[in-house]
Amino acid sequence: METVKNKKRILAISGSTRRNSSNELILKFIGQHYADVLEVELYEGIDLLPHFNPDLVKENPPAVVIEFREKIQAADGILICTPEYVFSLPGSMKNALEWTVSTTVFSDKPTAFIVASASGAEAFQSLNLILTTIQAKIALDSRLLIQGVKGKVGPLGQINDSATRQGIDTLVNSLLNSID
C-alpha cells in the first residue's frame, strides 16, 4: 500500500439497512484495515431518507436529504457496498441515489463500489449504470463483485477469502489513486 501524507475522507454507504450486514462489515473492515490512509465515515441514515419526491428536489428538500448531499460533497471519495435484492439494487440504495440526481454532488467524485451478495451480477450492472449516469468518477479497478459473500465474510467482519481480500486491496488502491 502506498504511503499517503494526509488521510483521505471517505463516505461509506451500505445499501443494506440491516445492522452488521455483510456489506456493513466489509465497509468497517476497510475503515479499520486502511486506517493509515483513509478516514472512513459510515453513513448510517440511508433508512431515514424519505421516498424520493421530484416535487421536493429543488424547492424544499428535507433536511436529512440536504445533510446526505453535503456529506457526499465534503468527502474526498465515496465507497458504496450493497447487496442485491431480487436481482436489483435494494430500494433504499436506489432511493438515496435518486436524491442526488438533480445535483452535481457525484459529478467527477472519486467513487468505488462493491456489490456483495449471493449472486450480485444484476445489481452490479445497475449500480454501474446509475453511477456512470450521475457522472461519478469510477476507475475500472474501483468496482468489485463479491459473489457468495456469506462464505467470504465472517460474522465479525473478517475476510476469509484471499481473492476477496486481494480484490478489496485493488479497489482501495484504485480509489486512492483516483483522488486528486
From the structure above, extract its key features.
alpha/beta; Rossmann fold; 180 residues; 5 helices; five-stranded parallel sheet
Provide a descriptive summary of the structure in words.
This protein is an alpha/beta fold and 180 residues long. The protein has one domain: Rossmann fold (3-Layer(aba) Sandwich), CATH 3.40.50.360. 34% of the residues lie in helices and 17% in strands. It has five helices and five strands; from the N terminus they run E-H-E-H-E-H-E-H-E-H. Strands 2-1-3-4-5 form a five-stranded parallel β-sheet, sandwiched between helices. Helix 4 (121-133) links the parallel strand 4 (111-117) and strand 5 (143-147). The longest helix is centred in the last third of the chain and has 17 residues, at 162-178. It is globular. The two termini are 17 Å apart. The model has no long low-confidence stretch (mean pLDDT 95). This is FMN reductase. Residues 9-141 form the NADPH-dependent FMN reductase-like domain. One of its GO terms (cellular component) is cytosol.
